[in-house]
Protein backbone atom coordinates (compact mmCIF):
# COMPACT_ATOMS: atom_id res chain seq x y z
CA UNK A 1 0.00 0.00 0.00
CA UNK A 2 1.43 3.37 -1.03
CA UNK A 3 1.81 6.31 1.32
CA UNK A 4 -0.89 8.14 -0.58
CA UNK A 5 -3.33 5.24 -0.23
CA UNK A 6 -2.51 4.85 3.48
CA UNK A 7 -3.12 8.56 4.03
CA UNK A 8 -6.46 8.37 2.22
CA UNK A 9 -7.42 5.33 4.31
CA UNK A 10 -6.62 7.14 7.57
CA UNK A 11 -8.64 10.14 6.40
CA UNK A 12 -11.60 7.87 5.65
CA UNK A 13 -11.21 6.20 9.05
CA UNK A 14 -11.24 9.51 10.93
CA UNK A 15 -14.37 10.51 9.03
CA UNK A 16 -16.00 7.13 9.69
CA UNK A 17 -15.51 7.41 13.44
CA UNK A 18 -17.78 10.46 13.50
CA UNK A 19 -20.96 8.35 13.40
CA UNK A 20 -22.01 4.67 13.54
CA UNK A 21 -23.58 4.86 10.08
CA UNK A 22 -20.40 6.16 8.47
CA UNK A 23 -18.37 3.55 10.35
CA UNK A 24 -20.55 0.76 8.95
CA UNK A 25 -20.26 2.22 5.45
CA UNK A 26 -16.47 2.41 5.80
CA UNK A 27 -16.16 -1.17 7.03
CA UNK A 28 -18.58 -2.48 4.41
CA UNK A 29 -16.56 -0.83 1.65
CA UNK A 30 -13.33 -2.36 2.97
CA UNK A 31 -14.94 -5.79 3.24
CA UNK A 32 -16.38 -5.55 -0.26
CA UNK A 33 -13.03 -4.54 -1.75
CA UNK A 34 -10.70 -6.80 0.25
CA UNK A 35 -12.97 -9.55 1.58
CA UNK A 36 -11.82 -11.85 4.35
CA UNK A 37 -8.40 -10.16 4.62
CA UNK A 38 -10.10 -7.29 6.49
CA UNK A 39 -11.78 -9.79 8.86
CA UNK A 40 -8.42 -11.40 9.62
CA UNK A 41 -6.57 -8.10 10.08
CA UNK A 42 -9.32 -6.58 12.22
CA UNK A 43 -9.21 -9.54 14.60
CA UNK A 44 -5.41 -9.83 14.53
CA UNK A 45 -4.80 -6.14 15.25
CA UNK A 46 -7.25 -5.94 18.15
CA UNK A 47 -4.34 -5.43 20.58
CA UNK A 48 -3.47 -2.04 19.04
CA UNK A 49 -6.85 -1.05 17.54
CA UNK A 50 -9.30 -1.60 20.43
CA UNK A 51 -12.58 -3.26 19.39
CA UNK A 52 -11.45 -3.63 15.75
CA UNK A 53 -12.18 -7.35 16.04
CA UNK A 54 -15.72 -6.75 17.29
CA UNK A 55 -16.39 -4.22 14.54
CA UNK A 56 -15.19 -6.32 11.60
CA UNK A 57 -17.02 -9.41 12.89
CA UNK A 58 -20.27 -7.47 13.27
CA UNK A 59 -19.90 -5.75 9.90
CA UNK A 60 -18.83 -9.01 8.24
CA UNK A 61 -21.87 -10.81 9.61
CA UNK A 62 -24.19 -8.09 8.37
CA UNK A 63 -22.58 -8.04 4.92
CA UNK A 64 -22.99 -11.81 4.70
CA UNK A 65 -26.72 -11.38 5.38
CA UNK A 66 -27.44 -8.28 3.33
CA UNK A 67 -25.43 -8.91 0.15
CA UNK A 68 -24.06 -12.45 0.25
CA UNK A 69 -20.68 -11.17 -1.01
CA UNK A 70 -19.05 -13.06 1.85
CA UNK A 71 -20.25 -16.02 3.92
CA UNK A 72 -20.90 -16.05 7.66
CA UNK A 73 -19.08 -19.33 8.31
CA UNK A 74 -15.89 -17.95 6.73
CA UNK A 75 -16.23 -14.68 8.65
CA UNK A 76 -16.37 -16.68 11.89
CA UNK A 77 -13.50 -19.03 11.00
CA UNK A 78 -11.15 -16.35 9.64
CA UNK A 79 -11.97 -13.94 12.47
CA UNK A 80 -11.21 -16.69 14.97
CA UNK A 81 -7.92 -17.44 13.20
CA UNK A 82 -6.88 -13.77 13.34
CA UNK A 83 -7.74 -13.57 17.04
CA UNK A 84 -5.81 -16.77 17.78
CA UNK A 85 -2.73 -15.46 15.95
CA UNK A 86 -2.95 -12.20 17.87
CA UNK A 87 -3.34 -13.83 21.29
CA UNK A 88 -0.58 -16.40 20.79
CA UNK A 89 1.78 -13.70 19.51
CA UNK A 90 1.10 -11.57 22.59
CA UNK A 91 1.48 -14.62 24.86
CA UNK A 92 4.92 -15.51 23.48
CA UNK A 93 5.96 -11.86 23.52
CA UNK A 94 5.36 -11.83 27.26
CA UNK A 95 6.72 -15.34 27.80
CA UNK A 96 10.00 -14.78 25.92
CA UNK A 97 10.45 -11.07 26.60
CA UNK A 98 9.66 -11.36 30.30
CA UNK A 99 9.65 -8.53 32.82
CA UNK A 100 12.67 -6.89 31.15
CA UNK A 101 10.61 -6.43 28.01
CA UNK A 102 7.72 -4.92 29.95
CA UNK A 103 10.07 -2.52 31.69
CA UNK A 104 11.39 -1.39 28.31
CA UNK A 105 7.88 -1.19 26.92
CA UNK A 106 6.56 0.96 29.75
CA UNK A 107 9.35 3.48 30.09
CA UNK A 108 7.25 6.48 31.08
CA UNK A 109 7.54 7.56 34.69
CA UNK A 110 3.77 7.56 35.05
CA UNK A 111 3.37 3.92 33.97
CA UNK A 112 6.28 2.77 36.15
CA UNK A 113 4.34 4.04 39.16
CA UNK A 114 1.61 1.50 38.42
CA UNK A 115 3.74 -1.32 37.01
CA UNK A 116 6.22 -2.31 39.69
CA UNK A 117 7.85 -5.71 40.30
CA UNK A 118 5.44 -6.49 43.13
CA UNK A 119 2.50 -5.81 40.80
CA UNK A 120 3.89 -8.23 38.24
CA UNK A 121 4.32 -10.86 40.95
CA UNK A 122 0.66 -10.43 41.84
CA UNK A 123 -0.28 -10.89 38.20
CA UNK A 124 1.78 -14.08 38.15
CA UNK A 125 0.05 -15.39 41.29
CA UNK A 126 -3.37 -14.45 39.93
CA UNK A 127 -2.82 -16.37 36.69
CA UNK A 128 -1.53 -19.35 38.66
CA UNK A 129 -4.80 -19.44 40.61
CA UNK A 130 -7.32 -18.12 38.09
CA UNK A 131 -5.57 -18.23 34.70
CA UNK A 132 -8.22 -20.23 32.85
CA UNK A 133 -11.16 -18.06 33.95
CA UNK A 134 -9.18 -14.89 33.24
CA UNK A 135 -8.35 -15.99 29.69
CA UNK A 136 -11.96 -17.01 29.07
CA UNK A 137 -13.65 -13.86 30.36
CA UNK A 138 -10.88 -11.50 29.26
CA UNK A 139 -11.83 -12.07 25.62
CA UNK A 140 -15.19 -10.39 26.34
CA UNK A 141 -13.82 -7.58 28.51
CA UNK A 142 -12.71 -4.30 26.87
CA UNK A 143 -9.15 -3.45 27.81
CA UNK A 144 -8.38 -6.91 29.18
CA UNK A 145 -8.50 -8.49 25.73
CA UNK A 146 -5.12 -7.04 24.78
CA UNK A 147 -3.51 -7.31 28.23
CA UNK A 148 -4.71 -10.84 28.99
CA UNK A 149 -2.48 -12.91 26.66
CA UNK A 150 0.56 -10.74 27.42
CA UNK A 151 -0.03 -11.18 31.16
CA UNK A 152 -0.52 -14.93 30.70
CA UNK A 153 2.87 -15.13 29.00
CA UNK A 154 4.56 -13.00 31.64
CA UNK A 155 3.18 -15.20 34.39
CA UNK A 156 4.53 -18.33 32.63
CA UNK A 157 1.06 -19.87 32.37
CA UNK A 158 1.50 -23.20 30.59
CA UNK A 159 0.90 -22.66 26.88
CA UNK A 160 -1.33 -25.75 26.33
CA UNK A 161 -3.58 -24.57 29.18
CA UNK A 162 -3.60 -21.01 27.85
CA UNK A 163 -4.33 -22.19 24.31
CA UNK A 164 -7.21 -24.44 25.39
CA UNK A 165 -9.03 -21.67 27.24
CA UNK A 166 -8.11 -19.09 24.60
CA UNK A 167 -9.49 -21.15 21.72
CA UNK A 168 -12.69 -21.78 23.67
CA UNK A 169 -13.08 -18.05 24.35
CA UNK A 170 -12.27 -17.12 20.75
CA UNK A 171 -14.77 -19.64 19.40
CA UNK A 172 -17.55 -18.25 21.59
CA UNK A 173 -16.58 -14.68 20.69
CA UNK A 174 -16.39 -15.28 16.92
CA UNK A 175 -19.70 -17.13 16.77
CA UNK A 176 -21.51 -14.57 18.93
CA UNK A 177 -20.13 -11.46 17.18
CA UNK A 178 -20.62 -12.83 13.68
CA UNK A 179 -24.13 -14.06 14.47
CA UNK A 180 -25.18 -10.78 16.09
CA UNK A 181 -24.02 -8.91 12.99
CA UNK A 182 -25.80 -11.40 10.73
CA UNK A 183 -29.11 -11.32 12.61
CA UNK A 184 -29.25 -7.76 13.92
CA UNK A 185 -26.89 -5.77 11.69
CA UNK A 186 -29.74 -3.53 10.52
CA UNK A 187 -29.78 -2.15 14.07
CA UNK A 188 -26.09 -1.20 13.78
CA UNK A 189 -26.38 2.06 15.70
CA UNK A 190 -28.11 0.33 18.61
CA UNK A 191 -25.43 -2.40 18.70
CA UNK A 192 -22.55 0.10 18.67
CA UNK A 193 -24.20 2.17 21.40
CA UNK A 194 -24.67 -0.97 23.49
CA UNK A 195 -21.01 -1.96 23.02
CA UNK A 196 -19.87 1.51 24.07
CA UNK A 197 -22.12 1.43 27.14
CA UNK A 198 -20.83 -2.04 28.02
CA UNK A 199 -17.24 -0.84 27.73
CA UNK A 200 -17.90 2.15 29.98
CA UNK A 201 -19.71 -0.03 32.53
CA UNK A 202 -16.81 -2.49 32.68
CA UNK A 203 -14.30 0.37 33.05
CA UNK A 204 -16.32 1.93 35.88
CA UNK A 205 -16.67 -1.44 37.61
CA UNK A 206 -12.93 -2.07 37.34
CA UNK A 207 -12.17 1.39 38.72
CA UNK A 208 -14.59 0.81 41.61
CA UNK A 209 -12.97 -2.53 42.43
CA UNK A 210 -9.49 -0.97 42.42
CA UNK A 211 -10.63 1.83 44.75
CA UNK A 212 -12.32 -0.68 47.05
CA UNK A 213 -9.16 -2.81 47.14
CA UNK A 214 -6.99 0.21 47.99
CA UNK A 215 -9.34 1.24 50.78
CA UNK A 216 -9.39 -2.31 52.14
CA UNK A 217 -5.59 -2.54 52.19
CA UNK A 218 -5.27 0.84 53.86
CA UNK A 219 -7.70 -0.23 56.58
CA UNK A 220 -5.73 -3.45 57.11
CA UNK A 221 -2.47 -1.51 57.57
CA UNK A 222 -4.11 0.56 60.29
Automatic annotation (TrEMBL):
This protein's record includes keyword Mitochondrion: no
Q: Which GO terms describe its cellular component?
A: plasma membrane
Tell me which InterPro entries the record gives.
DedA_domain, VTT_dom
Q: Please report the stretch or stretches of sequence annotated as the VTT domain.
A: 53-179
Q: What is its main location?
A: membrane
| UniProt topology in membrane | Multi-pass membrane protein
Transmembrane residues, as ranges?
34-50, 62-83, 162-185, 197-216
Q: Which UniProt keywords are listed?
A: Cell membrane, Membrane, Transmembrane, Transmembrane helix
Show the taxonomic lineage.
Bacteria, Bacillati, Actinomycetota, Rubrobacteria, Rubrobacterales
The UniProt similarity line reads: Belongs to the DedA family.
Source organism, top-level taxon: Bacteria
Q: Does the record's keyword annotation contain Hydrolase?
A: no
Entries under Pfam families matching the protein: VTT_dom (PF09335)
What is the official name of this protein in its record?
DedA family protein
Give the originating organism. Rubrobacter taiwanensis
Q: Subcellular localization, per the record? A: Cell membrane
Amino acid sequence: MSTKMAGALLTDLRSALSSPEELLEFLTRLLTEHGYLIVFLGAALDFCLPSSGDLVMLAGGWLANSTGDIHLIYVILIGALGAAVCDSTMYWTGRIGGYAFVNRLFRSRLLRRFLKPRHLRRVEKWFYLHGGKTVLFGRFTPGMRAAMPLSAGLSKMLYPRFLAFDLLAISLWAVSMGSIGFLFGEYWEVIITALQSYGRAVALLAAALVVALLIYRRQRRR
